[in-house]
Write a structure and sequence with these properties.
single chain, mainly alpha, 2 domains
Length: about 300
């Protein structure tokens, strides 16, 4: 049965389209009461999509992982071996996109393969290949901007704060690592799971609804949240510095030096000094302090008491 608004046996259901780190966008979609992709199929395809980067190669990138993801459905749609072979060769072509959004593309492609297997008029295998190619690049840009450039640094910052606090309290830092992994994957894997089914249900309309997501607003809010946690991290560093590093000089000078370092790094970022240069300068200061300690020119004692 076609997934369109014109069939009598179809009903209108509001369904969640896409889970981002800050919001869930709800979009109307029409779909048949009886669909080929069951909830169990979605679960199986979700776990298979986790291996999309397992056979990453520099010639066709994620092609093997993508073909592996949708293979059970291809096998169901095309009973004869020759048709299966043609379909799998079609999906071993080049594809490179964000790994958390590749399942959305898989859902859309599965729906088109279903139409092709039913001999839908006007649809050719070449159309599916072109559609996959057109989807991969925009979703790669969207996913990289949201996850790699925005969400992952924010959660990493939270994880560092947790680890520092746990170190000072003498507790296992693995709790901080575990907290980072849980918080990060809770959102990212939800996007992967939801995108798979919504891509299948919405097909080309999925792209239209994705365009409605206020990506820049979400990134701005996440970046603002990241700056708040960066300020918190600076405070944690100053607090731990006064507790863990016993420097033979007035405590006020230590705090003043810490604040000047924070403001200096912030100002360097503001005037757009290359972040690699800033990183190398901070590392150089650390090496200088170690040299002064080794040479006996500056006396301080570092007290660390933590366990893995």
């Amino acid at each position: 049965m076609e997934h369109g608004a014109g069939s009598k046996n179809e009903k209108f259901l509001p369904c969640s389209l896409f889970l981002t780190p800050c919001s869930m966008l709800y979009a109307p979609c029409y779909f048949s009461e009886v669909v080929m992709l069951s909830n169990w199929d979605v679960v199986k395809l979700f776990f298979r999509s986790l291996l999309v980067m397992a056979v990453f190669n520099f010639e066709r990138m994620q092609n093997v992982g993508f073909a592996f993801t949708i293979f059970p459905i291809i096998k169901r749609l095309y009973p004869d071996a020759q048709s299966q072979k043609e379909a799998m060769l079609r999906h071993l072509e080049y594809i490179n996109t964000n790994p958390y959004l590749v399942s959305s593309i898989a859902g859309i492609i599965i729906s088109k393969e279903e139409e092709l297997s039913k001999r839908k008029e006007g649809l050719t295998p070449g159309d599916i290949s072109v559609l996959k190619s057109l989807l991969s690049a925009p979703l790669a840009g969207l996913g990289d901007a949201l996850f790699w450039a925005t969400y992952r640094p924010l959660i990493s910052l939270i994880g560092v704060i947790l680890i520092l606090i746990l170190m000072f309290e003498g507790k296992s830092i693995l709790w901080g690592v575990g907290g980072f992994l849980i918080i990060y994957n809770l959102v990212c894997q939800s996007v992967r799971f939801i995108g798979l089914k919504k891509g299948y249900l919405l097909k080309e309309q999925f792209v239209e609804e994705i365009n409605k997501i206020p990506v820049q607003k979400i990134r701005y809010r996440l970046n603002t949240t990241g700056m708040i946690f960066l300020g918190a991290l600076s405070s944690v560093f100053c607090w731990l510095g006064s507790e863990l590093i016993k420097i033979r000089m007035p405590e006020g000078i230590v705090w003043l030096a810490s604040i000047m370092l924070i403001l200096g790094v912030g100002s360097a970022i503001r005037i757009r000094i290359n972040t690699l240069v800033i990183f190398l300068i901070v590392i150089g200061l650390g090496i200088l302090l170690v040299y002064l300690k080794t040479a006996g020119m500056w006396d301080y004692e570092v007290i660390m008491n933590y366990e893995l």
